[in-house]
Amino acid sequence: MKIELNLSIDRSAQASLSEQIHSGIRKAIEGGVLEQGARLPSWQDLAAQLGVARGTVRTAYDKLAAAQLIEASRAAGTRVAQRPGAVADKQTRVDPGAFMNMYLEMTQGPAFFQMGVPATDVFPATLFARLYGQAVRTGASAPLLYPDPRGELVLRREIASFLAIARGMNCSPDHVIVTNGYAAGLGLALGALKLAGHSAWLEEPSFPWSRRGVELAGLSVAPIPVDAQGIDVEHGMRSCPGARLAVVTPGQQAPLGQTLSLERRLLLLDWAAANDAWVVEDDYLSELQLTGRAAPALASLDRAGRVIHIGSFSKTISPALRLGFVIAPPALVPLFAETAACLIPAPGPAVQIAVAEFIREGHYLRHIRRMKRLYVSRRQAVLSALPTSDCVVDVSTPGLAVLIKLRNDVPDVAVVNEALTFGLSPAPLSPWFVSPGNAQSGLLLGVATAPQKNLREACRRLLELAERSRL
Length: 471
Fold this sequence. Notes:
Elements: H1 17-30, H2 43-50, H3 54-66, E1 70-73, E2 77-80, H4 98-107, H5 125-140, H6 153-166, E3 176-179, H7 181-193, E4 199-204, H8 208-216, E5 220-227, E6 230-231, H9 233-239, E7 245-248, H10 262-274, E8 278-282, E9 307-312, E10 324-327, H11 333-342, H12 349-360, H13 363-385, E11 392-396, E12 401-406, H14 412-419, E13 427-428, E14 442-446, H15 455-468
Helix pairs in contact: 1-3, 2-3, 5-12, 6-12, 7-8, 7-11, 13-15, 14-15
């Protein structure tokens, strides 16, 4: 990809303009700012950018080429030359931090048993590519105007209609705000509510990214235990009665898989209404309930307008789309719309229009039905392939995973790190817990990405690694 060079020249300096350009590019290459293979602007384009004669830039490029720092060809353009053994200046490398390192480790792939990634072999890629291509062509000839920051109306209409049928929700397109995935939806809610300094209930265990997002918004996390009926609302009312936010996964608890009981749903809504609190409903698996019909959304029971429903297309279509949505309660619609317009606008129109058409033509529901049949089959295959092991305490099937609970003397993170070298990428269970004292060791095996060949060998390898890792 061609890059823009951030060069500055001083016409009053003693060094010639070509020497300044040569020196600036050389420093960028040797300092690692310009990586090997990076494409430079043509000398004509750079001359126009800097306001100098084309011959001036050409002279600088000739010197760089003579030093074997850049190379030019008609097909590839002018690029930074490959230099065997060249190492970028370590000072330019910034450690992204422990959280980002964990995030990148848990989302790298594709790999077998990877969580959060749908199966690719049943997705109608050719069909979706045609819809997306049509949307791009339509957008290219549209007036050059800023799009609606809440999202394209056609997609907001389709989302509202789908939720009415599939999730039992009564909402209009005005309540829908399209976002760049679930994370942006949570960021939109946290940014609009401005609850810094207050406490938030989070399920114990809960999604690590949600927990960190709540902390970054300035709230303190109160871990609330989960049992067979979902989050223990009464425990939350006793241990942290002053909380102003609860982040829950009522449809299928992440990662354990329980559905929040009706009794606790009503109690949670009553608590929120009585305490001026808000409930973020993370509908992370939406319709992908593999056993029976998916439970209605918590928001479908909300009469006081306290539930903020967040969904995405990451698990049903692709996480690469970075496409999600927020259903705002009526009282928050103007505030959420303002926050989207000023801080977190919707993604580009083309992908929204393509997904809207994908839903409107019925492909989305058909695709979900195919995925559910496939995932049921793959889940059973994984269960059948698991060998017996002294390290295993329990095996269950939450959501789109097979959860292998391990003995507490088996470090699940270490097992996963070693498994990566074999192309296996289950998720460790222990990082999902807020309190280290509550953490349980386990492996979450994504069934969507379970290997179709050598499955028994992959499962045997995982448990063998677990047995070797015992402390």
